[in-house]
Amino acid sequence: MDLNEERAQQWRADLRNEIKTKDRTAKTRVHMPELDAEYRSHTRVEEVNLGLTPEMAMAEAQRCIDCANPTCMEGCPVGIYIPKFVKQIEVGDFLGAAKTLKETSALPAVCGRVCPQEKQCEAKCIHVKMNKPAVAIGHLERFAADYERESGQISVPEVATPNGMKIAVVGSGPAGLSFAGDMAKMGYDVTVYEALHEIGGVLKYGIPEFRLPNAIVDVEIENLRSMGVKFITNCIIGKTISIDDLKEEGFKGVFVASGAGLPRFMNIKGENFVGVMSSNEYLTRVNLMDAASADSDTPVFLGKHVAVIGGGNTAMDSVRTARRLGASRAMIIYRRTEEEMPARLEEVKHAKEEGIEFMTLRNPIEFKGNEQGRVTEMVLQVMELGEPDASGRRAPVEVPGKTETIEVDEVIVSVGVSPNPLIPQSVIGLEVTKWGTIVVDQDSMQTDIPMIFAGGDIVRGGATVILAMGDGRKAAAAMDKWIKEKN
Fold it and tell me: For position 14, what pLDDT does the model report?
């Protein structure tokens, strides 16, 4: 332990003693201010959550008792030094808190908004064990990152002396950006290749601005540029150039973070009717291509009776977007009950407040259309919960002979995604699973081709932003070790 860390621990111990533990645990958790539900359900560009004030942030930080064994850190895939940044907020050192976050996280403002803290760091908070609400770690992370950005005093993490070794990253989503940040800190010459025209991957095309503004993502990306990371857009690895081309250009390692952008459908009758589309297409067109604008070259249909099939965060993003685009009836169709939904509780709450209808224990079995080939109705099989399936959730089973037919003019299918096949198909000898995901060593994220590492959805098949970032950090540490040992 260095001198600075010793001083930091002593400072935190002194601070801990200023307010007794029982007084800290007695404090009420702050409530994040939000836009009015009726107003926000008609605007796509304004963020729902409004953030904490400095006074609210400091008051919430006082709830942290600075445990000797900070179990909250066990729940953080990227290893943020949570007690330190929280205590910095408590004493008003907001810029110091932001700097602490950047030591391990390339995207603190993003994670503070979309990371499922309630299932990660906050789930491990000591308050939960005392049957009290966890410290609002996610709110505090967002506050520190936002305060730094709004102050104009943005710190750039320290980078090592350049070592002259070139590293390529395939994909600019959360896994790729996290990996790029860590490799840049270690002195590598990092180039990120993105197939689309915008940097950010799923952060840009998959998450609406009312939940994650593009401007927030852009600031995080600019911070990586300030660290020396280079970005090349409109370049498809596996088509535009190959992995072999990268090797010939002198790249010593490649991190594949190309995501899982291929949609899954249900393979039911009528699925090819006009008006039935995947959530990937719908959100990409609206978020990245501005297809909801009247002057769009490829406008998206503005449905009035919109059904979204699925119960995850992407389904919530889709149905809430449809509501904002003028749907008078926007529905979630889910084959289990609300309790089994994988979406964040916050997203479900916000959706209900915005007038979204939840039709649970319903499973589509047929789409019907008109003579023009456009979907007009959806037949739903009524379900009930049976015994638990392999995931531990009670499996939905059909109620014999019981169906419903509802009117729809747009259906968005959000039942999962499949990995992007370009890299697995274009690299000879790369081992993949039967689902098309890349096989890696779980400790190092290294594939059976030593110079290629992989992480995020291309490995997991589907993951949260923070889990993908954790993969990126793990891969960066392992690749650095591998390169050093090789050389």
Answer: 58
